Amino acid sequence: MVIKPFVTTYLKKTCNERFILQIKRYVTSHQYSTQIRSERSILYKPNKWEAIIGLEVHAQLNSKTKLFSSSSTSFNEPVNTNVSVIDASFPGTLPQLNAKCIELAVAASLALSGNVQLISSFDRKQYFYPDLPAGYQITQHYAPISLGGKVFLNYLDGLEYETMVRIKQIQLEQDTGKSIHDIVPGMTLIDLNRAGIGLIEIVTEPDMRTPKEAGLTVKKLQSILRAIGSSDGNMEEGSLRCDVNVSVHEHGTPYGTRCEIKNLNSIKFLMAAIDVEIERQINELENGNKIVQETRGFDVKKNKTYRLRTKETATDYRYMPEPDLPPLILNKDYITRISDNLPELPDDLKTRIMKKYGIPLHDVIVLMNETGGIKYFEEAVKNRNPQHVSNWITHELFGRLHARNIKFSQNPVSALQLGSVIDCVDNGDITGKVGKKILEKIISGDSRLASTIIQEEGLRQLNDINELEVICQEVILQNPEQLKSLREGKQTVFAWFVGQVMNKTKGQANPKLVNEILRKLL
Amino acid sequence: MAQDLLQQKKVTSVTLVRDCFSQISKHNARLNAFIKVQNENVALEKAREADERVNKGVIKGALDGIPITYKDNFCTKELSTTCDFMSPFNATVVDLLQDAGAIMIGKTNMDEFGMGSANMYSAFGPAYNPHTIISDQKEPIDQEPRVAGGSSGGSAASVASGMCFASLGSDTGGSVRLPASYCGVIGFKPSYGQCSRWGLTAYASSLDTVGIITRNVLDAQLIYDIISKYDEKDSSSLSPKLRSINASLASFDKTNTNVTDLSKLRVGIPQEYYVFELSDPIKNLWKRGISLLRSYGATIVSVSCPSTRYALPAYYILAPAEASSNLARYDGVRYGHRSDMDSNQEEELLYVHTRSEGFGEEVKRRILLGTYTLTAGSYNDYFIYAQRIRKMVQSDFDSVFRRPNPLHLVKDETSPFYNRNNDEIFEISNQLRKENNGVDVIMTPVAISTSPKAKDSLSSSFLSNSSSCFSTDNTSIDDNRFVNAYVNDVFTIPANLAGIPAISVPFGISPIDGFPIGLQLMTQYGDEHTLFYISKVLENNFFKQ
């Protein structure tokens, strides 16, 4: 994408010479405005306001141990059990950098077309808070591990047009502990299980213009990080968290003052918060007020943002080079090795799966939303009807796992087992209904193949016309009342008879044959 | 050496330990060398076990049965580390010494968090100089209490008074060398990165070094050889690869065969260390040191380290900045003191009482100073400048020493040492040596005076005076007293800023007050063995009046 000429033409169109100079200076000094896309000029009411949105995404790295200690990172453990003397910042302790976290951060940088820095370093960001044991967070302020990068959004992501969001930098840093305020009244409890877990902070340029673009960017980052295994990217569990910067300006004027909205824990809330924040800022400006640079929170219930702190009361983080860690020096071979082992990225994957299996984009997206979903699909789809397999996975399997609160990563149904269920249904051995029952059984822990279950428990579909005729006859004879009302013209009773036969056969009767026989007999 | 006597069965560990405890019971009340003394029976039990091992000929290590003390800022599982804090782990160096058989006698007194040069800023009261007690001089010496020096004052006092055979201290700006000079013992600071800092309570991480205090050079070397090990728990620990490269570099001690012939030795005398405040007895002894080495055939070279005059101010920017950060963890949430007044406080003020009550005055001063220099408005004006000065001090030393600095040689693929075997490294380093103008060792004083009197040392204001340390104005005597407290660090700080090894070797007694004086030797980064070599020459020629 050519950026510079675009800025110039844009400026010529809208500004007089003197103004151009000002803007030009502004543009070069802030590196902002490099992308003003009139082709998607998304303006807000009265058709002159434009919103400028930037993101800071924190993603927990998918490493078994913490960034600077060997404590486990497993989620939902009893409070303060995954804590070492390093995590609790005991006197005399020193951080030890976890190689796995570097690998995952480098992979993320490569997947986002970032420039992995051969030399990066760590800094201390200092502030007092009870869930920050050392009184500082180790981060990469002055020399982050990756600079630059980009994310593309297009129809594959559900956007009507194409756009690109540039990434400013990716930095490695440690997570804080958790403060729990509401269990014991008047007290704050501290859980340090999360303290020291490795994060990458992905900082974008202010290249988004709508809440939808912002939401899709987060989704895209999420799917890329999942695809390469760098992060679970789970917003509910907090392994992915977002802060967003929003400003509005009149189209054709310099950017406005930005406000940061903190701690948005779902894409839905992120979009809602941006939406109301844009509206708030436009209202302020239209009423002749100024926007003050500040940090805001989002009240989900009131659907409003509210002030947390202004610039005047902002913390001075007193950044300082981390003396306990030498600079992180990577060599090119190391980066090449990670690059060579990078799995297929979401856009390529989507296109390939759609082309190869002919299933719709929606199905691919649903499959991709679960880590390992595509891999599972590709295992199960061998020699089977792709659409059937996709339906079974995305509707039957995902739905049942979700209902039972089982994560897909803990999915008890092997691809082989699911394939066996699909085969049995598709070749008419069992009905779809029985297939679903068998799936339930497998989810509950049955490790047998569907074909074995059918055989051992006699669940095979009744396709024997003679046998079915006998059963149908019996049902008709046993229910003279219903027969009478059917004869009197009450057609709904027919379905009732089908149901009775199915009941009697425990659902194993071939419903098609039952229909035919009953129609003949009645 | 005690360990030789032990192994030759001329003395038992039990006797050694008993002697140490007897010295403690006799003198510690006056010296206040300890914050915590080990239970005598526990120590004796260990001594008995050591004796058994010696008798069976299956000793644990080079220090089996040797009584040792640790400065209170080393984490030890067995004894509390300041007040009642029980660390759940041992410092790496403590583990290494215990594995070698050392018996812990106690934890020694120190300036709080290592901040001080007189051991007057201890929460447990000052440690005093033992020289009046142990001196065998016929002439009466001034009996007024004098400081043991800081911040490892308790360590120096415990070694000098025979309460132990060696002590581990820490050296951030001279904290083992200064008390060693005052108390008349060896105070050795290895190169930064040689000994693991894991388990050493941090003051200023980029300057903190494990230090060794002993009664002779050989003991210091023995302990150094045990604790100088790579430790993956300390990321600033010198890597095995760098250690092996360093070991292959040419150095004076490897090429010199005859101890009495130092004709190949080049000794640097930095002119910037000849400061106004230097007292006559020290000046004279420094000159004696120079003529001694000359008499052994060494070439004496006047060298210049022009950045030295900025080292002290730079140190007082960098060390407090790191301290303000390192000490942020003492918030009373997980361990340590917690003020009763800190509940029911507004969030922003949560730690005010805990930290105000918990820290001593000097610590608070340095935290405030460090917090200030790190704020957005002053970071560039102070911290960055101080970092630059630190680089200048380092390159001053690099340009003076004959031996190349191994840290600068192996950085990347363009280095001549990249992918070379040890013989090649030796060869190349020989070619890189500044044969004709570099020096092998630098000799300077350690302190500007002998141990000050305790009453003169109670300075409460370094802030107002630290910048004027080189001032030649006619300041009042009263002001000088405060100035001296900080000028005292002036000779020792450069080695910390540069990370190079330095040692204080007792070399004489002041004819004025009868108190000991040490001389400081410094060598290039990683050249500890040359340092020991020359230290032994000074040690063997201790100047007696």
From TrEMBL, chain A:
Keywords, in A-Z order: ATP-binding, Ligase, Mitochondrion, Nucleotide-binding, Protein biosynthesis
Reactions listed under catalytic activity: L-glutamyl-tRNA(Gln) + L-glutamine + ATP + H2O = L-glutaminyl-tRNA(Gln) + L-glutamate + ADP + phosphate + H(+); L-aspartyl-tRNA(Asn) + L-glutamine + ATP + H2O = L-asparaginyl-tRNA(Asn) + L-glutamate + ADP + phosphate + 2 H(+)
Pfam families: GatB_N (PF02934), GatB_Yqey (PF02637)
GO annotations of cellular component type: glutamyl-tRNA(Gln) amidotransferase complex; mitochondrion
Localisation per UniProt entry: Mitochondrion
Domain Asn/Gln amidotransferase residues, every copy: 375-522
InterPro entries: Asn/Gln-tRNA_amidoTrfase_suB/E, Asn/Gln-tRNA_Trfase_suB/E_cat, Asn/Gln_amidotransferase, Asn/Gln_tRNA_amidoTrase-B-like, GatB, GatB_Yqey_C_2, Gln-tRNA_amidoTrfase_suB_CS, Gln_synth/guanido_kin_cat_dom
GO molecular function, one term: ATP binding
Keyword Ligase belongs to the record: yes
Top-level lineage group: Eukaryota
GO terms of biological process kind: glutaminyl-tRNAGln biosynthesis via transamidation; mitochondrial translation
E.C. numbers: 6.3.5.-
Family statement: Belongs to the GatB/GatE family. GatB subfamily.
Role: Allows the formation of correctly charged Gln-tRNA(Gln) through the transamidation of misacylated Glu-tRNA(Gln) in the mitochondria. The reaction takes place in the presence of glutamine and ATP through an activated gamma-phospho-Glu-tRNA(Gln).
HAMAP family in the record: GatB
Self-association state and partner proteins as the record states: Subunit of the heterotrimeric GatCAB amidotransferase (AdT) complex, composed of A, B and C subunits.
Protein name per the record: Glutamyl-tRNA(Gln) amidotransferase subunit B, mitochondrial
Organism whose genome encodes this protein: Dentiscutata erythropus
Lineage: Eukaryota, Fungi, Fungi incertae sedis, Mucoromycota, Glomeromycotina
TrEMBL record, chain B:
Subcellular location(s) of the protein: Mitochondrion
GO BP field: glutaminyl-tRNAGln biosynthesis via transamidation; mitochondrial translation
Keyword check for Ligase: yes
Domain called Amidase: residue spans: 16-531
Record field: catalytic activity: L-glutamyl-tRNA(Gln) + L-glutamine + ATP + H2O = L-glutaminyl-tRNA(Gln) + L-glutamate + ADP + phosphate + H(+)
A Pfam family hit: Amidase
UniProt EC number: 6.3.5.7
Keyword check for Mitochondrion: yes
Family matches, as PROSITE patterns: AMIDASES
Primary localization: mitochondrion
GO CC terms in record: glutamyl-tRNA(Gln) amidotransferase complex; mitochondrion
GO molecular-function terms, A-Z: ATP binding; glutaminyl-tRNA synthase (glutamine-hydrolyzing) activity
UniProt-annotated catalytic positions: K71 (charge relay system), S151 (charge relay system), S175 (acyl-ester intermediate)
Keywords tagged on the record: ATP-binding, Ligase, Mitochondrion, Nucleotide-binding, Protein biosynthesis
Recorded family membership: Belongs to the amidase family. GatA subfamily.
Task performed by this protein: Allows the formation of correctly charged Gln-tRNA(Gln) through the transamidation of misacylated Glu-tRNA(Gln) in the mitochondria. The reaction takes place in the presence of glutamine and ATP through an activated gamma-phospho-Glu-tRNA(Gln).
Subunit structure: Subunit of the heterotrimeric GatCAB amidotransferase (AdT) complex, composed of A, B and C subunits.
Stated name of the protein: Glutamyl-tRNA(Gln) amidotransferase subunit A, mitochondrial
